[in-house]
Amino acid sequence: MPTIARAGAYRVFFFSNEGDEPPHVHIQRERALAKFWLEPVALADASGFSARELRELARLVEDHGEEWRKAWHEYFKR
Question: How far is CA 62 from CA 17, 20, 41, 56, 69, in A?
């Protein structure tokens, strides 16, 4: 589970066995977890986050999407 970023209380990561899926990140805060596709940015799944917090996370993904896509592609060598 490579952690690619931390933003406040959030940890941004991907699972090393998910290279066959489209580029995405998981964002975790305590027991809350969300998955966002990166191309284009879209919420794939979430549990434990409020709608407001998910909107904030979507903005975070939009703001850092380019660097997180780069990290994905470098890690999975696509």
Answer: 24, 22, 7, 10, 11
Distance between CA atoms of residues 70 and 21, nearest Å: 15
Q: How many CA atoms lie within 13 A of 66 on its CB side?
A: 1
Question: Residue 66 and residue 32: Cα distance in Å, rounded?
Answer: 24
**DSSP H/E element including 44:** strand 41-47
Count CB atoms within 10 A of the CB of residue 24.
21
SS3 (DSSP) at 30: coil
pLDDT tens sequence across 13-64:
999 999 899 999 999 999 999 999 999 999 999 999 999 999 999 999 999 9
Provide the CB-side half-sphere exposure for 13 (13 A, CA).
11
